[in-house]
Amino acid sequence: MKKLLTILLCIILTATTVCAAPDGMCAQPTDIKVILHGKEIPSCAVNNAMYIAADDLGEYGYTVTYVDEVRTLFVNKTHAPSDIMPKPCNVKNALSTDIQVMLNGELLEENSKFASNGKMYICANTITYYVSGQNVFDTGIPRYKYNLMPTWDGENRIYYIDDAPLPSKEEQVADFLSYNGNREEYSTFLSFTETRLQGEGFEIVGLRVGGLPHGSNTFWYYCADDGKSYSINTVVSPFRMHQAWGQSSIKDPRIEGRRLYFEGQRTMSLIDYSQGIYYGTYYLDLDTTVVNVVEETRS
Known about the structure:
Elements: H1 2-16, E1 33-36, E2 39-41, E3 43-46, E4 49-53, E5 62-67, E6 72-77, E7 100-103, E8 106-107, E9 113-116, E10 119-123, E11 130-131, E12 143-144, E13 148-153, E14 158-163, H2 169-181, E15 191-199, E16 202-210, E17 217-224, E18 229-231, H3 232-235, E19 251-256, E20 259-268, E21 275-285, E22 291-298
Parallel strand pairs: 1-14, 6-7
Antiparallel strand pairs: 1-2, 3-4, 4-10, 5-6, 7-8, 9-10, 11-12, 13-14, 15-16, 16-17, 17-18, 19-20, 20-21, 21-22
């Protein structure tokens, strides 16, 4: 019964909290603590929701990389937590920001973050969001969107966040292929080509859909043997790696260690960040999910 109550509290806390910090709001007093991967993380209450600093996640097993040119903070679980305890939160003036946060391969909702005193704060309730009966492709396997799950200890006022159980690589790849091969908008187009690239401990799967009004589109998916996965199309989207009509521009991909090299097209240069159509050779760091340029020219 106690376990059932805990689960119900988690669902209520996660699903009903609206994480939005209007400009100018300050942190509110709270006795709630947030424990991330077994270690307390400085947190604060703003607008009736708990927030943590994304910048602090480097001490909790995450690689945190900010790319100013695309105004995106990339946050990915890559290692074990350290023994270092970040400084307490100091939120005196919550400000809206155009900076995006890509957490474990998924873009965080716009209303679930704010900036204050040089740090980016993200909603602890949002990052444990669970979509009942759905996965990242909206079908099949139940999934926590950001691969993080909550447990609420009401007696001690503690919000625990831990790694969520993940479906197997085989299940996820099968679901990826099934979803992208049966989407309603493609029901009349029967040209599908599957590509598989094997790396050490992971696989990259591509599904090319031909016969679309503006040409073909290819969906790319990374999935590790331990079940960690993400849509490559999603993680490269801040870098505008697409063609004029929005199709993926990733071509001739090849794996070298933990990098995915490819030929691509962008609508913004990665060298001087001017607008236009650019072609070049790039690589995606599979751990940080950041795109880097090898060479690039303007058309």
